[in-house]
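Hi again,

Forgot to attach this to my earlier email, sorry! This is the prediction with magnesium ion bound. I've pasted everything inline since the attachment limit keeps bouncing my files.
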Amino acid sequence: MTQFDSLTGLPNRAFFIEEAEFLANFNPTDENHFSIIFADIDRFKELNNTHGHLCGDGALKTVAKRLSSLLSSNDFLARVDGDEFVVIHRNATKTSTSLLADKLVKSFSDPIVIEGRDNYLGISIGSSTWPIDGRDLSSVLSRSDLAMHKAKVSHQSYVCYNKSLGYEYDREKTISIKLSQAIEKNQLALVYQPKIDLVSHDIVGFEALLRWTEPEMGFIGPAEFIPIAEKHGLMTEIGHWVILTTCKQINQWRTAGFDFDGRIAINISVQQIEQPYFYERTLAVLKNERISPAQIELEVTESILIKDPEKIIAVLSRLIRAGFSIAIDDFGTGYSSFSYLKKFQASVLKIDRSFVSNVTTNLLDQSIVQSINDLGHNLGLKVIAEGVETIEQSDYLTSIGCDMVQGFYYSKPLVADKVLSFITNNTDQL
Ligand SMILES: [Mg+2]
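Structure tokens for the complex follow:
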């Protein structure tokens, strides 16, 4: 009784561990390799929630039977958690493992019938093989678990562990640990990229961009570390550091005699806005540095509206009332909801660089850029294109009436000291 799951009659987690430990204690030969195949059912929670636990239990029994019927007498199937099953596949090779995994996946293309109703569930499978992927059991287990999670997040049905998956995981873990100390170790820095008005050719603003150099790992790009910071809940403090540092910088520029009436743009993540005192904390920084919200533009991506749009819109509206302007970043790449666009009073729409980079060579990208530009103008917003790298791109954007641009064609992001000289040297020539 202590070794079996009462619902499905399959071995339980304790029995599975005992069996796997037994196998991992042998000296490896060509014949005794085994794979751990982790399988997690997709949409099981939804089934439970909509049709009740009895229906869920019925589905688990059917799944257990279905999986069992596909295994050979050498294989060992256990139910290790709610909707998690695991197979120990003996006399395994990587090929026999993936053939078996494919069979398990295919068995889910038929519906699971409960009380006369068809339920379509999916399955996410990850595998790793002893001793190829790890000599000790715990690393084989964690690697097949890692492969299963990769299958889940990448919407693949089956992922077989490989070294690059392990490298990716280790690197993310290292980055998240090092990043959590980056502020206190003084490793973060800001650079400022000019924004140019396409009609007057004036410098109308700068976007503050985050840079991170870690002594051992070197320069790590924001496209890599910002998603990791978001995933590991580090964006609130890093984002606050960006606001604080930008404001201190504006203060310093002012002391140095730089009287600039454009806005400095700061990127804000959803984690920051969700914090209960984001508004108060941000305004306190500005007050401390004697900066008016009218000097700041907050760049937010459309994806911030996915989770709790009403709450986020309320915070954004409060910030707008205080004098900040809001730019919608990366427009067109994610979740573009026109109804929300209408509800919050953004001032600027930013066309993502992925459309801009091919705007003179790809007609589809050209149509997208033109449509976003027209949409922005029809809604009363200013439109800026980022990632402008050639004169042809700039000319095209001018021809469709786009308001502003930023990108390497005009200037790379500049360290704070170079901002003043950039303005003095370039205003007349742009
Ligand atoms: Mg941005």
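The radius of gyration is 28 Å. The chain has two domains: 13-161, 174-426.

That should be everything now.

G.
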